[in-house]
């Protein structure tokens, strides 16, 4: 049991950055690596010796982020590749470029996301949050799967970020595009539940196929990042930052569940990792039993079938 004060100390299975094992020789793809949790994760992986591919939508922001990492980690192995998860052509181009240049992939961090924007659609006509947060990552993972399941990759990991908002989420299969009504927070919760269901269903399919790769879900709790900029990409205002700081934690702490899910030797696949403090809002990484109760294999299978049809990407497992 944790009493809510665990954000100030490590308990149980919790891990800090100093506990992350050496990542030399590993190739890591981080989506949304130009800010927030993605930037922090990319910095830590680079500091641990990994070859980090920063998948970014905005080239200028990506280069600025890379310079910040290089300043903190001299000799960091970084590559910037363009990726717009709201455009399936961009997703396909990213996967093709990666596979042509590298082939093997050890870690895929499905981190990027938009939160509570005004109603909008992706290049392919999907509701923006469902299309970017879920379908874009679904397609990316499927297209990179040969690199994740190659013999050279060994026990590769796919880490997909969800949110505590998934706890109130529901997949409305009759209104995925928002044409029958749209609520920004409702659709955000739906997209993050989709992330969770995808990660856990992927693990079931990897296990059934005998693949060595594993899939893990995680969430950062409430973290002071620019995800709260309503999809604009701008930094959150001072009032929002103060409010978040009172109930949440920093991007550095928010990144720990991702780093733990990606590197801890105790991970077996199919877990949901989140902060161990009260309500899962902040703290050190630990299994999130409350959020894991949202898993519904029947809904997950239906979502998988719909996602394959909408994206045109089939997982060959």
What secondary-structure arrangement, pairings included, does this model have?
Blueprint lengths: L26 E5 L4 H12 L3 E6 L2 H14 L4 E6 L5 H14 L5 E4 L17 H21 L8 E5 L22 H26 L4 E5 L19 H10 L3 H4 L1 H8 L8 E4 L9 E3 L1 H4 L4 H15 L6
Parallel strand pairs: 1-2, 1-4, 2-3, 4-5, 5-6, 6-7
Antiparallel strand pairs: 7-8
Helix pairs in contact: 1-2, 3-4, 4-5, 4-10, 5-10
GO molecular function, one term: oxidoreductase activity
Family: Belongs to the short-chain dehydrogenases/reductases (SDR) family.
Protein name: SDR family NAD(P)-dependent oxidoreductase
Q: How many whole angstroms does the radius of gyration measure?
A: 18 Å
CATH superfamily: NAD(P)-binding Rossmann-like Domain
Which shape, going by the Cα principal axes?
A: globular
Q: Report how far the terminal alpha carbons are from each other.
A: 39 Å
Continuous helix count? 10
Q: What's the total count of β strands?
A: 8
Give the structural class: alpha/beta
Q: How many domains? A: 1
Instruction: Return residue spans where pLDDT drops below 50 for at least 5 consecutive residues.
Output: 1-9, 226-240
Lateral strand order in the biggest sheet: 3-2-1-4-5-6-7-8
The sequence of SSEs as H and E is: EHEHEHEHEHEHHHEEHH
% residues in beta strands: 5-15%
| Main sheet summary | 8 strands, mixed
CATH architecture descriptor: 3-Layer(aba) Sandwich
